[in-house]
Amino acid sequence: MQISVCTKSLAVKLGLKWTKLTETTNMVTVNGQKSLTLGIVKNAQLKIMDVLVPINIHIVDSTKEKLLIGSNWFSKYKADLILTKNKLKFEAQERKFEVKIINMTSSNIKVQ
After folding, report:
1. What is the third-level CATH fold of 4-108?
2. I want to staple 78 with a disulfide (CB 3.0 to 4.6 A). Which of 54, 63, 86, 91 is the partner?
């Protein structure tokens, strides 16, 4: 199962509040190390352009500031990542969207 994961350091920086899971999950994290899930942010309001695309995000302990969007999000929003054209296509709120992918630092990212 491909889930969306955010490191604790980035979650804290973004002001995300997570709840502890009743059962911890051990997963390989963004730095390639095994880590326990600290909790989950249910329906985090990820915003792409002017569209809110809620997503459940699992929080893991890491000093890095990373957010990885899992294939569960891609399936839910019928998304296609076209790296050769630096584009993301997805469907939300009964509309189709196409956005240009740009590199950003974590200080520019906002999750409500």
Report:
1. Cathepsin D, subunit A; domain 1 (2.40.70)
2. 91
